[in-house]
Amino acid sequence: MRRFSVVIVTLAIILVLIPLITSLLINLENGIEISGAASNVGTVGVNVVSAGVCGNGICESGEDCSNCPSDCGTCPSPAPSPSPAGGGGGGISIVRGFTVEPDFIKVSLRQGETITRTLGIYNHGGSTLNFEIDLQELRDFILLSDEFFTLKPGESKILTLDFTAAINEKPDVYADLILIKTRDITKSVRTIIEVESREAILDVNLSVLDEYKVVSKGDVVKADIVLSNLGDLKPIDVFLNYAIKDFYGNVLTQREESLKIEDFLRITRELKLPENAPEGSYVFYTKVLYENTTAIGSDLFDVREIRAKRIEFPFKSIWIWLTEYYWVLLIILIIILIYLNIRVLKKKQKRVVCYRKKRK
C-alpha cells in the first residue's frame, strides 16, 4: 500500500511539472542555436544559415554592397554637407551597382527544341555602366539579344535568351555561370541546361530534399528521383547514373546502377561530398538510359559554411502528447487519490470499531 502511495505521489508531482516543462519547450520550439559546422546526416529539423563567398570577384546570391563591397560595389553614401566658405571642396564618391533578376535559370530541352527566357538588369548606381554578357561554355546553347550595352543611372534592360539544343546534341546536364560584367563589378547567373533525347520514352524528375539544400563540405546530399515509363513496353530495364558537378564542368562524385521500371518508380539516392569541396553552388543530377534514349533530371544545392543550426528538443513530441491529455490524466489521478482516501478512512473506521469491541 505504501509503495502504491509513493507511485501516486510521484505521478502527482509529474503532472504538476508538465505545465512548467511545456512552457520551457515552447521557448525551445524554434530550436537551440549552436555555432560551428553542421552535418545533415541523420538529423531532423535542422535550420542552417549560410555565408556567402566574398572576395571571389563575383557578386553571388546572399551578397550585396553592405556585406561584400569588393564583389558587389559600394553602397550609396549620404550626401556630403557643404564645406565652409573659403575651405577646400571635398570630392563626391560615385556609387556603382546593379541588380540582376533572376540569379538562377534552369531549362529542359529535347534535341532540336528551343525555349526562350529573359534576364533583367537594373542600374541602381549613380554612374553610367557599360555591360558585357559572357555566356562562357554555354555559348553554343544560347542566342543572346545583346552582348554589349550601356545603362545610365536608373535605367534597366530586359535581355532575351533563346536556349537551343541541336538535333545531334549529346543528352547531358550542362551547367555554367553566365557572367554580367562591368569595369568594376561582375555578377553571375547560375544556369543549368538539361538536354534529353528527342523521343520521350522516359520521364525523370529529381529534387534535392529540403534539409539538404544547404550543406557543409564532406556532408551527404540526398535527392528524390521519380522515374516514369511513358512507353508501351513494360517493365523495362534502365541504367541509372547520378552525380554531383560544379558550375565549372567538374564532376565531384557519381554512382551507377540498374533498375527495373513498370509504370512509375520513386527512389531516394545519396552522394557524399568530398571534404575539400569549395563553397558555392552545385548540381545534383541523374541520367537514365534506355536503349538509345536518355532522360535527365537535376536540382541545385549549396555548400556553405554553417553559422548556426537548429536542433529540436528530442522528447518534445512525448511532452506534447502528455500536454494534450493533461486534464484526463489529472482527473484520473484525482479519482485514484479519492479512492485511496476512502480506503484509508474505511480502514481507520474498522480499527476504531474493533478497538471499541475489545474494550467492551
What are its keywords?
360 residues, alpha+beta, Immunoglobulin-like, 2 domains, 39% strand
The count of β-strands is: 19
What would you call the shape? elongated
Number of domains: 2
Can you tell me the CATH topology of the largest domain? Immunoglobulin-like
| Text of the CATH class of the largest domain | Mainly Beta
CATH superfamily of the largest domain: Immunoglobulins
CATH architecture of the largest domain, by name, is Sandwich
Helix content: 10-25%
End-to-end separation: 31 Å
Task: Give a topology summary.
Elements: H1 2-27, E1 32-34, H2 69-72, E2 98-101, E3 104-110, E4 114-123, E5 129-134, E6 142-144, E7 148-151, E8 156-164, E9 172-181, E10 186-196, E11 202-208, E12 214-215, E13 220-229, E14 236-246, E15 251-261, E16 264-272, E17 280-290, E18 293-303, E19 309-311, H3 316-324, H4 326-359
Parallel strand pairs: 3-10, 12-18
Antiparallel strand pairs: 1-19, 2-4, 4-8, 5-7, 5-9, 6-8, 9-10, 11-13, 13-16, 14-15, 14-17, 17-18
Could you explain the architecture of this structure?
It is elongated and about 120 Å long. The chain starts with a helix and ends with a helix. The chain folds into two domains: 2-29 and 314-359; 69-77 and 91-309, Sandwich (Immunoglobulin-like). Strand 17 (280-290) and strand 18 form a beta hairpin. The model is unreliable at 29-51, 77-90 and 308-316 (pLDDT under 50). It contains four helices and 19 strands. The chain has a five-stranded mixed beta sheet with strand order 3-10-9-5-7, with no helix packed on it. Strands 12-18-17-14-15 form a five-stranded mixed beta sheet, with no helix packed on it. Helix content is 20%, strand content 39%. The protein is of the alpha+beta class and 360 residues long.
